[in-house]
Fold each of these.
Amino acid sequence: MFFRPIALVVVPTALLYAALLMLNDYLFGSLWISPGETWVFLPSGWCLIAILLFEEWGALGIIVGSLAVLGVQGSGQDPLASIGAALISGLAPLAARQVCLELAQIDVQLKSLTAVGLLRVALIFSSLSAALQQCWFAWWSSAEHFFTQLIVTLTANMAGAMLVLYACKLVLHSSAYLRKG
Amino acid sequence: MTKSKAANFSQMYTKYLNLVRTIKALPTFPDLDAVEARMLNTFAANWHEDKQITVLEAMVMLPEISTTTAHRRLKMLRKKGMIDLSLDSHDNRVKYVVPTKATHQYFAQLGQCMEKAQLA
């Protein structure tokens, strides 16, 4: 009974998150401000989609993916800080979803979600994730450059979300076009 | 499959369909304001009849806006890729306002929206 959500949701979510994380390093590594911080963060787009569709199981998948990449690649930072960041990468979007259900007037089934509403939700997800991540690092290590890093992380999350959403739009449009012939 | 599992999968699929619908509706065209949209619609009527529109003609096509405003909006439409200018083959001083690929896509999408509205 427990196995099915793990197989169908958590594992694919984790794999896709990890793949996007590595793709992000490959594509946007030259835009790094500091190790692990860049102006574009593609996985945030997948976080948005996974949480909206799969809720807690999506969050678990993101955490697993994040920890898996951490385990394989390691990080230049304190391991416990990185583990905390990995947990926040899954829990922050989940919290953002709750905020959106309360404030952004979306429903659980996403029936009332409009295109503009989705962009608003993406902004809430990006902001809350960035804020919680930076608060975590500020509490764990140093609050130096907190606001600068917050802006960078927020921008990266939002840019990544936009890229992923519009890539999905392009795929949907192309597949509809190919089906029509 | 138990009833609750089926309900869960059903809910997930419903969410997926709603999300796909929303993503498809994400804005792609550059935002056109009411004046620009009206200008484009007026040009479209002429293009549909294979009439060429010079820039000077385009500037006076909407009598309710000044030529200065019309010229500025023409520049905005060109910047947004919704129109282009082509030179007359005999007189380089004459420029024609021509549609672009984006214009055709814009009107195609409007037509699809109208079709959906009629079917609804």
Amino acid sequence: MRVTRRQFVKGGVAAFTVTFAAPEFLSDLARAQGARGRNLVVLYLSGGNDSLSMLIPYNDPFYTSRRPTLAVPAANVLQVGTDSSRVPLGLHPRLTGLRQIFDAGRLAFVQRTGYPNQSRSHFQGTDIWSTADPNNSSGLGWIGRYLDSLPSPVDPLVGWNTTSSLPHVLQSAHSAVPAIASTGGYGFQSPNTGSEAAAERGAAVRISSHLPLNQPELSFVYGSAAAALATLDRVALVNAYTPSAAYPNTGLGLALRAVAGAMAKSIGTRVFYVTTGGFDNHSQQNVNAANGAYYTLMATLNDALLAFYNDLNNQGLLGDTMLVSFSEFGRRITENGSGGTDHGAASVMMVMGGRVNGGLYGTAPNLNTDPKNPTLENNAGDVTFETDFRSVYARVADGWLGADSVRLLGGDFRKSSLTFI
Amino acid sequence: MAGLASNRQIEHLLRRAGFGARPDEIDSYSGQSYLDVVNALIHYEDTPDVVDSFIGQPGYVNVTSTAGGFSPQSNIAHARQRWLFRMIHGDRPLQEKMTLFWHNHFATGYTKIAGALGTAEGARYMAAKSTEGAGKVRGQLEMLRDNALGNFRDILLNIARDTAMLVWLDGRTNTKNNPQENFAREIMELFTVGVGHYTESDVYAGARVFTGWNLQRPGTAADGSQHYEFVYNAGNHETTAKTFSFPIYADGNRTIPARSASNGMQDGLDLIDALAANPNTGRYLATKLYRFFVREFGDVDQEFVGAIANVYDQSRYDMRQVMRAVLLSTQFRDEASMFTRYSWPVEFVIRSIKDIGWRGFSVNDALTPMASMGQTLYEPPDVSGWDAGQTWFSTGAMLARMNFAASLAMNQKFNLATAGKPHGASPESLLAYFLDQLATPPLDTNVAAELETYLRATGPWTGSDAQLQSKCAGLVHLIAGLPEYQLV
């Protein structure tokens, strides 16, 4: 079911085509396109992460005065040194594993990432981070565009999304990125058994090859069905994966376990998408108490990432892996009356991996309430960005994926100080 | 509009203004004009609302209860089953469809409510009927169902006072010393005017407007009447004037005046009136209605949006008149609009049950597959609702649809073989029968040929009972799993 570029243009399909190789070529393709090649894991912290509670400027007097109940006491933070503006920083006390990775030099924090006139809408904000286009956030996802730029034919397992629906960041013109929330349920079922069931599966595979090129919306569904059927057997391999580290029994833990399994089984996937939610803490954010909302978020993040890091390290896969996190916005500096924080602006991105130059990139905000404070905006209510998030994407694209960031992002966002890879 | 509505038109109407058609639904609407069918759909009060009384009765889809019995007022899995049951067996399809539209529009997630108040209470504030329990709590969904074609301004006011919403968007903690922006932002961004038609300072002013719109807990635990409900708490209200970037009053005035705390609830009523009357609200709703009812593919028809927004404004926000205009619009009735929407998982599931059969099937067995397809009722992913469109068709979600079709076909194996038997003389006649039962847009000849090839695979055609049992179920599985069948 290979569709050439020429047929694509001739067919006039604007929205979607599929450029899969025939299944018998898939394993060769997988080897050529990614097995034991570089992997990228995109981690979305959904809801707007309060990065001031994750990477904490604990000595800033305004941090304590503006967050009377949410501030983490200086004595409790896990100190990670000072940034280039000499602001001492500490991690949330539950992030012991991340501190360990940081100390190993394999975790980078890029402070104050965002963009001009940052949207405080979850919806629009997520679209902007997904498309890397603040001016038109309805287009294809930036990872989707990267997949489209790979030489055709593209292995349908080149991307793996661990959520059940397709996130905007992976929306692509030519690739139906598999959504595999659980490898166990990823199989072909039939009301029959034996040769009847096999005949059904054969029919389903052949049907999905008759791509209706003149109907792009229907083609999209055909592409999904074809990609699902073409990848079932390889995904089943991941079920047999035995990790070398114990993953927590959380959604994020299980997702990262599957990602590690896919890498270890060399099924050819290059880009993984993982998400963990619950960051929209308008009330009872409870940063400090064990079992508090934000404390639990940090526990989920820490335990899953540490297991993933250790597992990959044990398997010798860490050097092939980079994980990049983002969230749609940071949160308001001053806590609200509900013991929570409202929607804010700039936040912190994390980059983790075996070839990452860890450390603190960019500078922390000064939380002084002076409306002229240049590190803040919105009448000193929110953190203003210092590093355009597209500069981080650009570094990942150029330095890790081997892509052309100027083309991929539609502009030159390269920033020489971002040397995390 | 004179002349009888064709079966194709009735099926189109029921796929969009309902969840597909049971055989008896087609029968009951055929023989009427298109206008009569539309009138029957929008004047659903003329049909008794008795569907819940059929739950557990023979002849209907099953529900699966737990040790304590079937308790949709306190168990969210039961509440989900009750709603699916209504979609399958109810005779007020548009009421149920609009309820889904509003559930997505005012998207509220059970888990946060349950996290704050407990699981039984979470289900209660989402799904209880006011007759279920001494506290007379009417859950959010029942409120939306009661107002499915009501006045939009009333729906907004009800939502602003809804217990689940006051927890979901934190209005219960909105006080004068600490205004809470969450509800104020979403009522503008997602419920009324939309992005681009309000400013950040409107959000802050809106938060102050709704200070004091909190919860109280009357009743007693002893008789089970204790419950949370809306209260205007004057002591928590911020009394200074609030100025907006858009008109609040008919004379164009943009400022809600300073008021005494005891009169301060009027602030919120004024803002709700202003948002209902804002010209951007009608256009925002019309656009969403176009995507949900008329056409998902291609650009939004701006002529439609203008016309529907006009009905909204002229009728003073009467959703019955709005929906009447939607269903009678040339855009809706256009043949080219048929099958131009991606079905939501709940639409796919209900339609396939109506098409394939339900006797001996429990809607409980649809809940996990629906989650894999990306849709759990009472649990939209966030306040903006489900993403819909192509996001429904990730590979995993498409596989979940195909696998649901497989499990339903297996469950209905004997019924399908019985239904197929009169048409079992040849593969062609059997295929024609089942393609008529499970309507799709016209199939490519290659695709139809593959279905026939499947019927001829594994041995010569005999039409025996044994062959029909495997082939009817296998064929139905393949048809319901076709990409074409995912379109409505």
